[in-house]
Amino acid sequence: MKKSIVVVGLALVLFGVVATVQSVKADWQIDSHGNLVEMKNVLGDTAGGQGDQQTPEPTQTAEPKDTPEPTDTPEAQQMQEKNQEQNQVQSKYEVENKDGKLVVKTHTVDKSGKEVQTETQFKAGEALQVEAQTNAGNHFAINTEDNSGLTVTNGGKTAQSTLPLSVNAQNQLVVTTAAGQKVVTVLPDQAVKNLLSSGVLSSITESPVASAPGSTSSVGQLSAVGSTPTYTISGTKQVRFLGLFPVTLNRQVQVSAENGTVVNTAQSAIANFVSLFSF
Question: Which of 196, 276, 185, 266 lies closest to 222 in space, CA to CA?
Fold first, then answer.
């Protein structure tokens, strides 16, 4: 009888341990100071969007910044702050998809010009969270798409991309085009809001994204049109033909990821004709 109780007790403990392990996953984060740290995230939390409930728990730091030890005297603190400023480092990160897993290459340069490069290989399913450095900035996440592409998630909206992605020293998303590197100042969620608020589209065509962190939906592709990083977003536009008859037009809109302006609007020849006589 006692043996049975012991066996049942051990089984319950083992089950609890397994359940705990399965309920936690590790992600990586570039925090507001530009450090790459490992974090723990309870499954079910959203990522890359507004209202995140994640609590970063740094467990490993790649290229830590110089942080002075706390002291009691103002003179010592001033000296340490001066030394920290002189040795301040700036890091930028290149993000790649290697066989369905993220690889982040860190380039850290101090004020003396010395550069250190490191590489961090993520496990399957781990995403890179990027915190904003200023109140005007935006939190976003990068993850893999299949075995080659990448996704960018912000505010519950995800864009797929095959462009090389990186994060600069200001924690901004950067894409590499044929004309060089371009800073993405308009993230997917804002691009969608701009199209809806301006009336270019009445609704967005969305689809679930299994690979993106959190509960998100795909809103299109992030690619390059010439030298401009551009979102290609599909949706519908509600119009009234001759001002009387409601008609729904299918449209595909290209919007700049640099400033949010509409680059091009594509629709069928019939939709073009209807648009001419709609108001």
Answer: 185
